[in-house]
Specification:
The chain is mainly alpha-helical and 576 residues long. The protein has a single domain, classed as Up-down Bundle (Sodium/glucose cotransporter), CATH 1.20.1730.10. It contains 23 helices and two strands. It has a two-stranded antiparallel sheet with strand order 1-2. Helix 5 runs antiparallel to helix 13.
């Protein structure tokens, strides 16, 4: 059977599974809609958390980034992994004990202010929409190649699926759907990695194959370094980014993680604080399986890709090249008219003026979107059609699982933190549930628009969302837990300044507004993906300074902060 037939079968089966689970686990109350009833088993919640956490950026883009950027791409691996550990160990238990299942709810009550709650709602919506744009884009990329539909049509199909189980099932439907999605995505990620590792290194464990020797007896990484330097690229195992930008991106991803509302809410779906800690540990194990494999896939794909296309006659190109050309995500332009593919780093002036000029090359002819590497990897390695289709299903599972969690955050922010807490406090549970579903519909529609018109490739878009979370939420949360003196004036001022500063920098250097756009003009040499660190520091300084110049919070708030830090409370979940 063809790849397309296998894709229809495997994707169709997984979608039927997700919809079936959504119908079975449909929410009948606000508690089920918001926190799945609070009775999810820690292992199941660990799988759901891992699926929520490992978005299209993790499944589709991270290995692609590492594959093209080499050592520099490891900042995403370090930042996201370290960020989850920071969240699970430092913040989640305290937030769980506080008993507020949304970040705006925590900020509204901790800072005794509905205005603070409203600012947090606005921040949550901005962060979530930026994040979900990357997920919907990932869905479109998968559909455009494997179902051979326009990328915008692919986004629309993804919207319809997420709409069904997010609106119907809420957190209860999403949680059990995400358990299934984790199983699909991890199986889809590992199967081709194992096959390719055996073929290239003879080692069944990809992590060992990554650091082992190729079938020709050379170390795989040494071989890739040689391929890179032969084509004018920097050595794969050496970095080109400045140390300050590496630090800024890594730290922004870490602290941005700690402010991501769709991950924090997962710690409220289990019965107790003790179970929250257990589920965090299980999630870390489930996440590590993919994250330790991604660098191996990146190396395997890069070696195979260069060996397959570089210097070869275009008429002899394998089918995967022409298949991805149809999507517009891979382009070849014969600049010197020899019908051969010249793939090299034409931005390296020394290489272009010497080696490339001597060979008659007139510029790099192959443009490859980084987001296709994981999806194209099985095709590049000539794996069976069913494996290629399985990876497509895994990419969809990763994108849809995170998209659903993010859409629920937006829905909850509208129904619980705006309608219930501020506009109409006496609303019935049925009315609140209706508003939650209306909010989910609104979120799906806006997410679809951003999926069709994203600000960058998937991982870069997601990195910007982490920067926004770092700039807005992290200081308010960390100071709200560990600083009794932090008051509403400080928190509000810090959040507003932090997120506005980050938005300005994003628009200046990502969208080329306000006369920016060149990396040479970056402030302190820090990229937009890393600027969340600077905005977070500004937020912290302003929050601390303003809080010390204004009256302290009420006594009951200070006592509440003191109580949540006491090492007790591992009992039953707090009812909402």
């Amino acid at each position: 059977m063809s790849v397309q037939t296998w894709t229809f079968i495997i994707v169709g089966i997984t979608f039927a599974l997700y919809i079936g689970i959504a119908i079975w686990a449909r929410a009948g109350s606000t508690k089920e809609f918001y926190i799945a009833g609070g009775g999810v088993h820690p292992i199941a919640n660990g799988m759901a958390t891992a699926a929520d956490w490992m978005s299209a950026a993790s499944f589709i883009s991270m290995a692609g980034l590492i594959s093209f950027m080499g050592y520099d791409g490891s900042v995403y691996l370090m930042g996201w992994t370290g960020g989850y550990v920071l969240l699970a160990l430092l913040l989640a238990p305290y937030l769980r004990k506080f008993g507020k299942f949304t970040v705006p709810d925590f900020i509204g009550d901790r800072y005794y202010s509905n205005f603070a709650r409203t600012v947090a709602v606005a921040c949550a919506i901005i962060v979530s929409f930026t994040y979900v744009a990357g997920q919907m884009r990932g869905v479109g990329v998968v559909f455009s190649r494997f179902l051979e539909v326009d990328i915008n049509v692919g986004v629309g199909i993804g919207m319809a699926i997420v709409f069904f189980y997010a609106v119907l099932g809420g957190m209860k439907g999403i949680t059990y759907t995400q358990v299934a999605q984790y199983c699909v995505l991890i199986f889809a990620f590992m199967v081709p990695a194992i096959f390719i590792s055996i073929a290239m290194t003879g080692n069944v464990i990809p992590q060992f194959g990554f650091g082992g020797t190729a079938t020709d007896g050379t170390y795989l990484l040494d071989k890739l370094d040689g391929l890179h330097t032969d084509l004018g690229f920097a050595e794969y195992t050496s970095g080109t980014k400045s140390m300050i930008d590496v630090f800024a991106i890594t730290f922004a991803l870490m602290v941005g993680t700690a402010g991501l509302p769709h991950v924090i809410v997962r710690f409220f779906t289990v019965p107790s604080v003790r179970d929250a800690r257990k589920s965090a540990g299980w999630a870390l194990i489930f996440i590590a399986i993919l994250y330790t494999t991604a660098p191996a896939i990146a190396v395997f794909a890069r070696v195979n890709m260069i060996n397959t296309v570089s210097g070869k006659d275009y008429s002899e190109m394998p089918s995967w090249v022409t298949n991805w050309e149809k999507t517009g995500l891979l382009k070849w332009e014969d600049k010197n008219g020899d019908n051969r593919v010249q793939y090299y780093n034409d931005k390296n002036e020394s290489f272009s003026n010497s080696v490339a000029a001597a060979k008659g090359w007139k510029g790099n002819e192959l443009t490859i979107d980084r987001d296709i590497i994981v999806l194209a990897n099985p095709e590049i390695a000539n794996l069976p059609a069913w494996v290629i289709a399985l990876v497509a299903a895994g990419g969809l599972a990763a994108a849809l699982s995170t998209a659903a969690g993010l859409l629920l955050v937006i829905s909850t922010a509208i129904s619980h933190d705006l309608i219930k807490k501020q506009i109409k406090p006496d609303i019935s549970e049925k009315g609140e549930l209706l508003w939650a579903r209306i909010g989910a519909v609104f979120a799906v529609l806006v997410a679809g628009y951003f999926g069709i018109n994203p600000p960058g490739f998937v991982a870069a878009t997601v990195a910007l969302a982490f920067g926004l979370a770092a700039a807005s939420f992290f200081p308010a949360i960390i100071l709200g837990i560990f600083d009794k003196r932090m008051n509403k004036e400080g928190a509000i001022a810090g959040m507003v300044v932090g997120i506005l500063l980050m938005l300005f920098y994003m628009m200046k250097y990502k969208l080329q507004m306000f006369g920016g756009g060149s990396s040479e003009d970056w402030w302190f040499g820090i990229s937009p993906e890393g600027f969340g660190t600077v905005a977070m520091v500004v937020n912290l300084v302003i929050s601390f300074a303003v809080s010390r110049m204004t009256p302290p919070p009420p006594e009951y708030v200070q006592e509440m902060v003191e109580n949540i830090r006491v090492p007790r409370g591992a009992g039953a979940a707090i009812e909402h």
